[in-house]
Design goal:
With 311 residues, the chain is α/β, with parallel strands linked by helices. It is 41% helix and 15% strand. Keywords: Oxidoreductase.
């Protein structure tokens, strides 16, 4: 099951303890919200850098009106809304066209995350992101950026046998599609907790000819028990051992998890290998949007300075 099915400060100081490599790695980071979690944020300008891309997760049962209103609010506060378009909750091409039109009328949306979604049974004619992309509607409506799902640790919803055969086949199709669409494309991945599997996956798909930039999913600060619950539910594989090992240490069990270790390792690898496929970091704020944004501000230098603080 996808994390999308579970996901729900006063001005922060401009000074931070972040390293230069980490600050560079966090430049242009994005973050995920849902309508009901966005309602808890008084003003995104107080917590996010100007122009931050804000994904809006569309969970089954969320009215399109709530999604559109959230996109409009994010746009009005100076940020780039990127709503999810989950294939399995979109009835048909007419519905997809209607949703796109509503987003554009209300919030000038030109970016979207196109994915299958965590619903087991499709409500209509779509069951995959590929089918929605094949409609041509995103190009027809002038989308400038289309993100699609990436799975550093595989996806048993797609490959129940534990292989990556179907996932790899889909990646090859998306790579080919990126060469015939006018939109910029990237892979937005599920979250992981261990840099090793991420690096191995990114290098492997690059060797297989997948050149789509990677926006790596990272879980923001949260209670360890919360992250373990999400990790198990969302099918995170090898890197779950990082959390399990931490849970065995009583001194760490009571402390909130922070993503400094995985991000520092990835930042160092990127600095040593500039051609490495990770382009940006995408945060899943499982411990809260404000908590996640505050952590980035304190660890990411200028990369995390809120719009209100830099105005």
């Amino acid at each position: 099951m996808s994390v999308l099915s579970f996901l729900r400060r006063k001005d922060a100081p401009a000074t931070t303890t972040g390293s230069g490599e980490l600050e560079e790695f966090l430049q242009g980071y994005s973050i995920e919200v849902m309508p009901r979690t966005a309602e808890k944020v008084e003003d995104f300008r107080a917590i996010l850098p100007a122009g931050t891309r804000v994904y809006i997760a569309h969970i089954e049962g969320t009215p399109i009106e709530d999604m559109v209103a959230t996109a409009a609010r994010i746009r009005a506060e100076g940020f780039e809304p990127m709503p999810h378009f989950p294939a399995r909750i979109v009835k048909d091409a007419a519905t997809l066209q209607e949703w796109i039109a509503r987003y554009q009328d209300a919030a000038d949306v030109k970016q979207g995350l196109i994915l299958a979604g965590g619903v087991k049974e499709p409500v209509g004619e779509f069951h995959s992101s590929i089918q929605m992309l094949e409609t041509g509607l995103f190009d027809q409506h002038g989308f400038t950026r289309l993100h699609v799902a990436g799975h550093p640790e595989g996806n048993r919803d797609i490959d129940p046998d534990g292989s990556d055969r179907m996932v790899s086949e889909a990646l090859r199709w998306k790579q080919a599609f990126s060469e015939r669409t006018d939109a910029q494309m990237a892979l937005a991945t599920q979250f992981s907790f261990d840099a090793g599997p991420i690096i191995e996956w990114a290098d492997r798909i690059a060797a297989e000819g997948i050149q789509l930039p990677i926006h790596i999913g990272i879980a923001g600060p949260a209670k360890l028990q919360t992250l373990i619950k999400f990790a198990i539910a969302c099918g995170v594989g090898p890197s779950l051992k990082v959390l399990q090992k931490r849970a065995m240490d009583v001194t760490k069990l009571v402390m909130p998890y922070e993503p400094d270790e995985v991000l520092t390792a990835l930042a160092a690898h990127k600095a040593a290998h500039p051609g490495f496929g990770i382009e940006q970091v995408h945060f899943f704020p499982l411990g809260g949007i404000k908590t996640c944004a505050k952590w980035v501000t304190e660890n990411g230098g200028a990369a995390g300075v809120p719009a209100a603080a830099s105005a």
